[in-house]
Amino acid sequence: MNNNKKKERWIQHYSSSHKILLIGEGDFSFSACLAKAFRNAANMVATCLHTKGGLLVVMEMLPVRHWTSTAHLQDLEKLGCLVLYEVDVHNMNEHPDLKQMKFDVILFNFPHAGHYSWLHERDSILIRMHQDLIAAYFKTAKEMVQEEGEIHVTVRDDYPYNTWEVEKLAECAGLQLKDKVEFRQENYPGYHNKRGGNINCNKKFPLKACYTYKFTLKVSAVEISDGSEVNDSASSELTSIITTVEDLQI
Ligand SMILES: C[S@@+](CC[C@H](N)C(=O)[O-])C[C@H]1O[C@@H](n2cnc3c(N)ncnc32)[C@H](O)[C@@H]1O
Is the pLDDT of residue 237 over 70? Predict the structure, then answer.
């Protein structure tokens, strides 16, 4: 018997033997929850869009946005998790610390393009912005996932969040749905969901009906010239969504 072999530990869909990348963390409480369940986080890379912070206090800093993050970051550090700041879904595959890595699971809980006092969640402009964010996540995550790996996204299923067409965006990116499972906050002890954005950033939002979608690379995806794989007709649809959002220049 190999006594050096570490015991595999699971929490829901996530195993201590997976190489896991977490995107768009709020106060890092979800990462900390996984790390504690595994009792070691050497298999995890936890990231956020915010800057780490320094002498000059600005809104973009994590400790300003999420002052509840301090304890979670301490836990993650103790357990050996790599924490990265300023990781943007639009170019995360080019990030110097990430570009050489491949992951078994990449996950983004509750992607959201931000809050604007002049926009409502039901407004098509904001819906397009959320779709653009998720489409960008799928596009870059695809480059970073192992061949047999999974790309997860957890979203709300109540209106208007259920109009985001997550499955269609994934299809456009050359991904296929493997599973869709209900997300229950109580399954992740210590996790506190955060609104993000500029308005009441550290506050929670209602988690009524939420689902984690698990996608894998599509087997029948067509090879295109730059080496990435994408479904032809779906690809042009995705481009049109992104172009529309870029045209708005918000
Ligand atoms: C509703 S919050 C959810 C935060 C956290 N995942 C949670 O479950 O509490 C949306 C998150 O998306 C992140 N986000 C928005 N745009 C992003 C981008 N371009 N790249 C990476 N993360 C982004 C924000 O920083 C924010 O933390």
Answer: no
